[in-house]
Amino acid sequence: MFWLEKRQWCQREIVCTGAQDDAEEVACSPGFQVKQYQVEYDGGFLKDQPLLKVVFDDCAENQDVSFEVSHPDFLIDEDLNLVPRRDVIDSGAVLFVHGLNAHADDMAQVDIMGAPPRSPQTLREIVGLGDITPYRTKRSLLVPPMFVPENQRAPFPRSIGKVISYDMKDDHYFRLTGKGADQDPKGVFSINRRTGEVAVSRALDREAIAFYHLQVSTTDMSGNLVEGPVDLDVYIIDQNDNRPIFKESRYSGEVLEGSPSGTTVMTMTALDADDPNTDNAVLRYIILRQSPEKPSPNMFYIDPERGDIITVISPSQLDRETLPTTQYELEIVAKDMAGSEVGLTGTATATITITDRNDHAPEFTHSLFQASVDEGSTGVVVNLTVDDRDDPATGGFRAMYSIINGDPNQSFEIHTNPDNNEGMLSVVKPLDYESSMFHTLMIRVENEDPLVPDVIYGPSSTATVYIAVQDVNEGPVFFPDPLMVTKWENIPVGSFVAMLNATDPDFRQIQSVRYGVLRDPAGWLSVNPVKGMVNTTATLDRESPHVHNNRYSAVFMATDNGNPPATGTGTLIITLQDENDNAPYVVPSVARMCEDAKEVNVAVIGARDKDIHPNTDPFKIELGKQLGLEKTWKISRINNTHSQIMLLHSLQRANYNVPLVLTDSGFPPLTNNTELKVQVCTCKKNRMDCNGAVTPVTDLLLLLSLLTLSILCL
Fold this sequence. Notes:
- The structure is a single chain.
- With about 725 residues, the chain is mainly β.
- About 5% of the residues lie in helices and about 40% in strands.
């Protein structure tokens, strides 16, 4: 590489040894004739082994030329070779060479190809010269970047590089400032005031601080700034001192049974705190151990770089129902240094669960189930059992039952028992032995989840249930029920009401039936125990409180002579037709008026009747047939049910009983001779005071008083 650079330089400007004989000589430019060099980095450099030869010409035979290298472990020997002073592994990515004598003062840059990436700074960027030309203005203070391996051992301090100033005078000093020098963390780095050699005072940890940014300047003896400050960047070279660490000690993943080979199950990720730009943090993953090892110790593979765990086993072998277990544990190792033997390791456990898919149809344990049930009863009659090899915790195991034949009347239902997956067949409508002694049902079982495409429900997914109905002695049944009849109220005691009809449903048995009264609220009825004839034992009264909406209800029972006897009940409803057997009565029974006839002297009264139309209104309300009564009171009709009574002249404050005659419109009509109590009260300012009224005055006394008064007036 050096000779390539030299040839390129020769073609540009200067006549070199070995160049074409006919090349014209040009004016000499003092200094390095090649400004940039390259050398390959292969893990380090051996002591005293030349790396390259620099080309320097001061145009005066190179007398008394001195060279300084920015890295203290390198030098330029008398043959102009760049040579390590010792075995060097921390060379950094760039070196700077300073050549100086009375005729020349120049810098060159050596790039270490393949060394760990460092600062992208070049010689031009550091010295601030821009493009290097044969004649240029230079900075006198050269501060190259420096590199320090972490975890160095004593003794300290250790030299890490040198700052060069070609304009350094005896009364000038180097000064180092910034974090790591005179700022926290203080005292990590120091500089020799006279020579510019920079040293580190203790072992460093790259994972704590990976980079220090300092400033170098020169001052006079009084501390006055002469030049600078110039940035000094110190990079901490990583050592492989951190093991890979998994975020968790145990990881969990799942893979569906039957998955194709190459299916990604999960990803394992470990972290390494070392420099990610070096092999110290480049991880490789391996599976150290699989448990259990059957059916193959290599069921899974881990991508060494990405950490993806994928399946290797064939889909047919990845069968949850035939594998020795549904969980496999993998011990995963992450190793840094790209997996080399010297790499550090970290471990974690991956637990992989083989999850179920519905690849097995449920099958009945028997093709025929039998049960018996008493007629007239309901509830569970038989439990149907099935086998299913799928995971009990999934819908691929849970069963759903259905009746597909044999139940036209929907007398049965079947439900799944969530505790044991059995089918509970129940009678929901009572069965009748006399109608059918046997029932044959066809039951189908399916899963909640659909089967995988290549699996179907077979003949074992259906079963037959044979149910025998047991005969039970049933009570006689009334027909019709209820029995409806219509009768007049007040018919003679002993009158015929109805004929009950109860039959025994157990027609396969010969049994007799006897009747009885179970509930007769008013005690009006009796029944012939053999014939079922119902007669009256008392007067039927439509107005009785036991009659509602003109209907009277009684309950009868019929008992057979079976073993044990059975009883049935039936209802008799009698609709009672009304007779005009209730006279009307006055409402209200008390009326109020003012003693002064000029005030309120009218009251509204009405008539009521317990009978129903046409035996009620229109009512006739009249004064009683007493002499002179019409001179004090007057009754006027308002409508079919109400009239008004009027006081014709003033009366003293008292209670009066006024005779009335009320007549309904029945056929024949009924009349009621009754009295209306009238309170004559004191009325003032629209207020009526009826307190302290004297004893009621009968209409006869009132009549006598009126007659006496009329005689005296004659």
